[in-house]
């Protein structure tokens, strides 16, 4: 009975959403996002269609964060991309270091953010509390800063209706790479930090705030994520 009660509480205080990823308009992957009120965000992704034949991928990511500041407490990922597999886990310890896999210690600022905690934060805070503010950023041993640049408020199509959204560009600048964990990472993490990639988000103004659309404009091709309504 106790376990059933805990499961019920977890479901009631978790918000899930699914997205379709496309490249050049061709369906490429399905993504599921779940945000918990306790301060946790989870993503799972599965390649589909022709991309699943030639570039199969099944990845899972999660991050635990301070529910008021959105600063990182811990995060992990499990990646399966064809023959490439990777498991990474990191946790902020009592001394303020980010410890990876119980062995690699990264010195970090007091409050550190990752791409996942930033995505949780942008779906919670209004634009005037995010616009141009700088956040200390970490990704797999690399340290830098990130900021949301608010472009405008505009209507964005969600597949069924037009939704009023705050439109942001996300800038990430890596300043220290000497502690980078591995030479290779998964597609998503590599593209987030790749030179010249423009990252944009359209987040609904109406609560509950949700990412309605997101794009990555890379050197080679555009990637688009659209909410499934």
Structure, briefly:
By secondary structure, this protein is mainly beta. The chain has helices spanning 2-12, 49-54, 115-122, 187-193; strands at 14-23, 26-36, 40-47, 57-65, 72-81, 84-92, 97-100, 104-107, 134-139, 142-157, 162-176, 198-204, 211-217, 222-227.
**Global outline:** globular
Number of domains: 1
Radius of gyration: 17 Å
Low-confidence stretches: 1-13
**Beta-strand content:** over 45%
Mean pLDDT: 92
- Structural class, judged by helices and strands? mainly beta
Spatial strand sequence of the major β-sheet:
8-7-6-5-4-3-2-1-14-13-12-11-10-9
Biggest pleated-sheet summary: 14 strands, antiparallel
Number of helices: 4
Q: What's the helix-strand series?
A: HEEEHEEEEEHEEEHEEE
- Number of beta strands: 14
State the end-to-end distance: 34 Å
Into which percent range does the helicity of residues fall?
A: 10-25%
Name some characteristics of this structure.
229 residues; mainly beta; 14-stranded antiparallel β-sheet; 4 helices; 14% helix
């Amino acid at each position: 009975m106790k376990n059933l009660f805990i499961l019920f509480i977890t479901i009631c205080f978790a918000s899930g959403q699914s997205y379709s990823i496309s490249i050049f308009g061709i369906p490429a992957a399905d993504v599921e996002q779940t945000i918990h009120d306790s301060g946790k965000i989870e993503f799972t992704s599965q390649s589909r269609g022709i991309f699943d034949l030639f570039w199969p991928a099944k990845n899972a990511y999660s991050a635990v964060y301070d529910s008021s500041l959105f600063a990182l407490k811990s995060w992990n990922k499990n990646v399966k991309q064809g023959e490439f597999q990777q498991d990474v886990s990191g946790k902020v310890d009592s001394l303020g270091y980010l410890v990876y896999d119980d062995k690699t210690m990264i010195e970090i600022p007091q409050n550190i953010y990752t791409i996942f905690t930033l995505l949780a934060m942008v779906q919670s805070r209004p634009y005037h509390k995010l616009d141009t503010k700088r956040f200390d950023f970490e990704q797999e041993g690399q340290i830098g800063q990130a900021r949301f640049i608010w472009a405008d408020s505009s209507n964005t199509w969600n597949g069924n209706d037009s939704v009023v959204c705050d439109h942001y560009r996300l800038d990430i600048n890596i300043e220290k790479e000497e502690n980078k964990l591995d030479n290779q990472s998964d597609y998503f993490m590599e593209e987030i930090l790749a030179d010249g990639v423009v990252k944009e988000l359209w987040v609904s103004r109406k609560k509950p705030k949700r990412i309605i659309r997101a794009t990555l404009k890379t050197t080679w091709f555009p990637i688009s994520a659209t909410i499934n309504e």
